[in-house]
Specification:
seven-stranded mixed β-sheet; alpha/beta
C-alpha cells in the first residue's frame, strides 16, 4: 500500500490506522532517513493500539515497553546498535517471536534477523512535493535502501 502524507497529522493518522489493525505476535519495521517521521509514526501507531502514554524514541535505551491489554507493545530503536551480537544481548528473539506487538525503528540496519513475515513501513521525503510531504509504503517485503 502506498500513502501520501501532506502533513504530520496525515502521517500520524496513517500510523494510527495501522496500529488499530496490528496483530499480536507481529513485527513492524520502520525505515527512512533521519527526520522523516519515524518517531511520529510510532506515536500514532501506539495510539492506534490504545496506548495513551507519552511515546518517545528509545534511541539510547534501545527498547521501550508499554502494556496493551493482555500483551506488550515493544518499541525498539536500533540506530545505535553496532552489531547483531548486541541484538542477542538485549534478547531480541523475545521481542520478535513472543506474543507481543513490536515496532522497530531503523529496522533495515538489522535486516538479517527480522522475521520473514514482518511488515515493512518505508517513509520518504520529496521536497519537490513540499516540506511536510511524505510517501509511506507499507508492504510485507523487505525494503532495500
Amino acid at each position: 500500500m502506498k500513502y501520501r502524507s501532506e502533513s504530520e497529522q496525515d502521517t500520524y493518522n496513517i500510523a494510527l490506522e495501522l496500529g488499530q489493525k496490528a496483530e499480536k505476535g507481529h513485527v513492524y519495521c520502520l525505515v527512512g532517513d533521519l527526520g522523516v517521521g519515524k518517531t511520529l509514526f510510532a506515536k500514532g501507531f501506539a495510539k492506534g493500539l490504545g496506548i495513551d502514554d507519552h511515546i518517545t524514541s528509545p534511541t539510547f535505551t534501545i527498547v521501550n515497553e508499554y502494556s496493551v491489554g493482555a500483551c506488550t507493545f515493544n518499541h525498539l530503536d536500533v540506530y545505535r546498535i553496532g552489531s547483531l551480537d548486541e541484538m542477542d544481548e538485549i534478547g531480541y528473539e523475545e521481542y520478535f517471536y513472543g506474543e507481543h506487538i513490536t515496532l522497530v525503528e531503523w529496522a533495515d540496519l538489522i535486516r538479517d534477523i527480522i522475521p520473514i513475515d514482518a511488515t515493512w513501513i518505508e517513509l520518504t521525503k520529496d521536497l519537490e512535493q513540499g516540506f511536510d510531504y511524505r510517501e509511506i509504503i507499507i508492504s510485507t517485503k523487505s525494503v532495500e535502501l
